[in-house]
User: Which sequence fits this backbone?
């Protein structure tokens, strides 16, 4: 699983981004300032850093310089400052990409996938029987053939994979796949997407072996 360090001191942004990226299959740790960020890098491993320029303790430019000096890890700047000087300075220090606030989480997601694809991000493939999910490329395949999952099907699969062995209620699943952009997901929609997902990943959707129904409780994956 791709491990992301989010260096940001805005608690609301940290909470929202952590929840969103977790739904997409990423493991996120956060640090509010320069000292904690460099400590988290030393503790490792980290595959990518999301870094705000303006920090209450230290600054993003110094953090980026230190990371690029000591670690071979891609950095994406998050900042409310979109002026030319900040952009150029960030790239001169080795930043791999730059996104101005406010941004749409899904746009950031595609930037992350692109950077990880270009840098050959490690630890991105999750397996479930004959199904593999590449969280960097954002694709799922069965026996090497693309499953062509919709965004909600893909997110639902990641929720199951990130909670193996746990029984997930329908309420928990609805909360987990709720689109941060505001897409409405109701109980009937969930039923439809579980059915569609089973049709794509199960050998026999009528007798599912991967996504199992736990009567009266919900669903679970324990393969």
Assistant:
């Amino acid at each position: 699983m791709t491990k992301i360090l989010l260096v940001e001191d805005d608690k609301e942004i940290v909470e929202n981004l952590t929840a969103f990226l977790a739904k997409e299959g990423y493991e996120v740790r956060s640090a509010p300032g320069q000292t904690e960020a460099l400590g988290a890098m030393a503790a490792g491993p980290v595959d990518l850093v999301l870094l705000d320029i303006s920090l209450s303790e230290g600054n993003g430019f110094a953090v980026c310089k230190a990371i690029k000096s000591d670690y071979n890890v891609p950095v994406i700047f998050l900042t409310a400052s979109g002026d030319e000087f900040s952009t150029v300075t960030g790239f001169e220090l080795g930043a791999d990409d730059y996104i101005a606030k406010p941004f749409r989480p899904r746009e950031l997601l595609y930037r992350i996938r692109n950077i990880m694809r270009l840098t050959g991000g490690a630890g991105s493939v999750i397996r479930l029987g004959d199904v593999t999910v590449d969280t960097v490329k954002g694709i799922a395949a069965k026996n090497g053939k693309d499953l062509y999952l919709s965004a909600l099907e893909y997110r639902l699969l990641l929720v199951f994979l990130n909670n193996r062995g746990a029984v997930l209620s329908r309420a928990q699943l609805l909360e987990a796949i709720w689109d941060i952009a505001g897409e409405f997901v109701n109980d009937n929609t969930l039923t439809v997407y579980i059915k569609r997902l089973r049709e794509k990943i199960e050998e026999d959707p009528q007798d599912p072996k991967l996504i199992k129904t736990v009567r009266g409780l919900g669903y679970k994956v324990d393969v």
Observations:
- The longest strand covers residues 3-7.
- The two ends are 17 Å apart (CA to CA).
